[in-house]
Structures are given as structure tokens and as C-alpha cells.
Amino acid sequence: MNFHCTKCAGCCTRKNFEAFDDIQLPPEIRFKPNGNCVNLTAENKCAIYERRPYLCSMKAIFTRPHIIAKMGKVGAALAEVVKALKTRFAKKQAEKEWYKFVNSHCNGLIEHLKLSPDYLINIDEQYKEEQVDEKL
């Protein structure tokens, strides 16, 4: 199960992290004058992807929501979403539902930032083919 990213770079902006105004961002998350993360390349990829901060990993947030729960109101709300999904669904299905949830927020961010609609994610189509086998 993977998170589907269209590389719009909306999450790699100061505007995305403004919701976390009550926490101290890790030192790796800094912004250029244009509002983009200093680690964002011209190809809309993360220059430090393999060692990216916790806040930049949807899988890390899903697997360790207790960390984000300590990061203010938004972090606590996200941790509650993960907790609810893990309570309602078996593990792999919960992870799939988490990614769908995050992708729906990606779409909102894409629209808010007025990025190209080409970056929008058709969530139902994207996750339709991914079967969850809880026996694995």
C-alpha cells in the first residue's frame, strides 16, 4: 500500500505548514522567500526524501501517530483520525483509508493554492485497483 503523490509540491510550502503554527518545525523544514521548502527541487521532488522529517511522511504519521499528537491542535486531530481508522478497519485497510483521507486533503490544498487541476487525485479511481489482503 502506497500513498499516491502527484508531485504538485503543495505540501512543500509554507502555506501547508501554517496549520502547525503552534509547533516548532524541525530544522530541515525551512522556506525560501517564494514560500517553497528549501529541499524542494526544480522537478518538485524532495532533495532529502530518504531522510525527510517525520511531518513529511504520511506512512510515519500513520505508524506513529502519538508523535504528531503532541504537535498542537492539528497534530492531535490527525492522530485522532489515525486512531479512529485503526479502530474501525483492519491494519491494511486502515492504512488505505488514511492515504485516501490525506489525498482528499491534498486535493483541497491543490485547489486552495490554485495549482494546476492536472495534479488533482481521483481518489476512487486511484485506490480502486488496490486490493487489501489482510492475510499477508
What can be said about this structure in brief?
The protein is mostly helical and 136 residues long. 43% of the residues lie in helices and 0% in strands. The protein starts with 13 loop residues before the first helix and ends in an 8-residue tail after the last helix.
Describe the structure in your own words.
This protein is mainly alpha-helical and 136 residues long. The protein has one domain (10-128). 43% of the residues lie in helices and 0% in strands. The protein is built from six helices and no strands. It has helices spanning 14-17, 58-63, 65-68, 72-88, 91-112, 123-128. It is globular and about 45 Å long. The termini are close together.
Oligomerization status of the protein chains: single chain
Arithmetic mean pLDDT:
90
Stretches where pLDDT falls below 50 for ≥5 residues?
Answer: none
C-alpha Rg (nearest Å): 15 Å
Order of helices and strands: HHHHHH
- Strand fraction band? under 5%
Largest sheet: none
Tally of helical segments: 6
Give the fraction of residues assigned to helices.
40-55%
Structural class: mainly alpha
Q: Distance N terminus to C terminus?
A: 12 Å
* Total count of strands: 0
Q: Return the domain count.
A: 1
Q: Which outline best applies?
A: globular
